[in-house]
Design a protein that fits this description.
Largest sheet of chain A: 4 strands, mixed
Radius of gyration of chain A: 17 Å
Structural class of chain B: alpha+beta
Strand order of the largest sheet of chain A: 1-4-6-2
Number of helices of chain A: 4
Helix content of chain B: 25-40%
Largest interface: A-B, 25 and 15 residues
Helix content of chain A: 40-55%
Radius of gyration of chain B: 12 Å
Distance between the termini of chain A: 33 Å
Oligomer: heterodimer
Structural class of chain A: alpha+beta
Largest sheet of chain B: 5 strands, mixed
Number of strands of chain B: 5
Order of helices and strands of chain A: EHEEHEEEHEEH
Shape of chain B: globular
Strand content of chain B: 15-25%
C-alpha cells in the first residue's frame, strides 16, 4: 500500500499500468482520477496545502482500514499538493482485489474520505479573487454513507 | 518550540511557521501567548473546528508541551 503526496504532475495512465503489472492473485483493479475543474473558466488555479508527516499518515490509516474492510490486495493513492491548473489530474486512487465488488466499493469509499475529511486545505484562485474551500454538504453525506454501513455491519455482527 | 499554521489561519496571521525562544509549558499557555501577540489570530484559534496537533498527533483540550514540541493549528479541513 502506497500513499504519495507530490508537487509534480503525474500521468494517471502510467500509474495504472504500473499498478497492474505482475499481478497473479488480482482479478479486479479499479482506478479513479480526479481533475481540476475550471467551473466555467471561473477557476484559474487551486492551491493545495498538506501537513507533511500528518496528512500522509492520516490517509494511510484510512487506506489500511479500507483495505481490511474490503479485503483489498493493494492500494495506491497519489495526491497533488501545491499549485494546480484546470485540467490537471489532482488525485489518483487505485484498488486491487480478487473480485470487482471490493475494488469498486473501496475506491468509492476512499474518494469519499479524500474529498471530505482528508487533512488538506484548498484555496481556489478565481477571477474575482481567492477563497478557501470547504467540503460541500454532499461530500459529508457521501462520506457518512460508509460510517452508517459500518455501524449496521457492527450491529449485524453482534446479533 | 515550532508553531505551524495551516490554511486560512496562515492568511490571518501572515506567517506559516515560527520558532519560539521561550516556549510556553502548555497548549493553553501557547494559545494565550499567541493571542497576546495578535488578538485577531487568538480569536481565529478559538473558532469551532480548529484543532491542535502536538508532534503530529491531534490533542483535545489542554496538553503539556515540551520545549522542543512541534505544535500545529489545523482549521477545518477542505478535503482534496
Amino acid at each position: 500500500m502506497v500513499v504519495r503526496l507530490q508537487n509534480e504532475p503525474f500521468a494517471p495512465g502510467d500509474l495504472l499500468a504500473a499498478f497492474c503489472q505482475d499481478r497473479r492473485d488480482v482479478g479486479a483493479v479499479v482506478s479513479f482520477t480526479g481533475l481540476v475543474r475550471a467551473d466555467g473558466e471561473m477557476v484559474q488555479a487551486l492551491e493545495l496545502e498538506a501537513y507533511t508527516g500528518f496528512t500522509d499518515l492520516e490517509i494511510g490509516r484510512i487506506a489500511d482500514e479500507a483495505a481490511l474492510r474490503h479485503g483489498l490486495i493493494d492500494v495506491l493513492i497519489v495526491h497533488r499538493i501545491g499549485r494546480l491548473l484546470p485540467g490537471e489530474p489532482i488525485v489518483f486512487v487505485a484498488t486491487a482485489a480478487a473480485h470487482r465488488r471490493a475494488a469498486f466499493e473501496a475506491a468509492d469509499q476512499l474518494m469519499d474520505y479524500l474529498k471530505s475529511r482528508a487533512p488538506f486545505w484548498k484555496k481556489s484562485v478565481e477571477v474575482g479573487g481567492e477563497r478557501w474551500i470547504e467540503p460541500r454538504p454532499e461530500d459529508y453525506q457521501d462520506a457518512a454513507r460508509w460510517d452508517a454501513a459500518l455501524a449496521n455491519k457492527t450491529l449485524e455482527d453482534r446479533r | 518550540m515550532k508553531v505551524l499554521l495551516f490554511g486560512p489561519l496562515r492568511d490571518v496571521a501572515g506567517w506559516r511557521e515560527r520558532t519560539l525562544a521561550s516556549p510556553p509549558l502548555s497548549l493553553v499557555g501557547l494559545k494565550a501567548a499567541l493571542a497576546r501577540d495578535d488578538s485577531v489570530l487568538g480569536e481565529a484559534l478559538d473558532r469551532p473546528g480548529v484543532q491542535a496537533a502536538v508532534n503530529k498527533a491531534i490533542v483535545r483540550g489542554d496538553a503539556p508541551l515540551a520545549a522542543d514540541a512541534e505544535v500545529a493549528f489545523l482549521p477545518p479541513m477542505s478535503g482534496g
